[in-house]
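Question (not urgent): is this output format expected?
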Amino acid sequence: MPVLIPRGAAANELAVDQKAAIMKNIVIPVDFSEHSRTAAKTGAYLARKTYARIHLLHVVYGPENWNQLTVENRQKHPDVEARIVEAGMKLDKLSQGPALQGLNVVTQVKTGIPHERIVSFALATNADLIVMGAHGAGDSEPVYIGSTTQRVIRAASSPVLSVKTRFDPASVKRILFASDFEENVSDALDFITELAVAMNTSIDLAFVNTPGHFVDSETIEQRMRQAQPDKPGVVIDHFVYNHYEKDRGIIEAARKRDAGVIAMITHDRKRKPPYSFGITESVLFLADAGVISVIVKK
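Got this back:
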């Protein structure tokens, strides 16, 4: 049975309570590409819905201990120092722009290896969500997803929402949560459900049947019923789709259901080589929708 959305004053009170609880910190890595600007707009939209603080982060490739270096040693890296100053000015300008106006925004420029600093910064700030572009400033978009995005998805303990330039969070009316529902997905679904309440969207619990991993309808429906959160504030439907390939089946299911966001479980893959693509990464490459990855450690 779907969970019905409350109406009237009760709905407004519920929405305020739940929005206040869902997020406190959103980290947005920014490399000033168009994809990262879309990520900033997306993060701003979510912050207005959840009252979260936004952390705009830019990472300059250079010595991680930059702040501990002496002036003499810093002068040996004039290019790094120049990029830090330039990034700080750009972040300040972005934070004061119309998209982020009126929000609680903190800007940070760090040095080091970008994906490592993003992951450690998100952990240090207790980030509830990382929002980042699917591609970076130096990436070739038709080839694959950005290497930094790929590494953050694999290593971050926080959920990661990856977006492309055409993504518009205000147009999202449905989140498709794709899973086989064999493992415990309760924590991930709790987060997705709270996000759906904040964004005023419905949720599809989706299973893609493939020839190599076929599950009968009764079994998968039972799994979905067991996984479905018992929370008010969002409509939850079940959807089963048949396809030869898991990743393309998820994409087609999202298109048929008009889902603006695809949510997926991912596992700790930071030790995997970059060329070993996971299902989440493949879906992100193929999809026009935003993709949320929620990590579950085996």
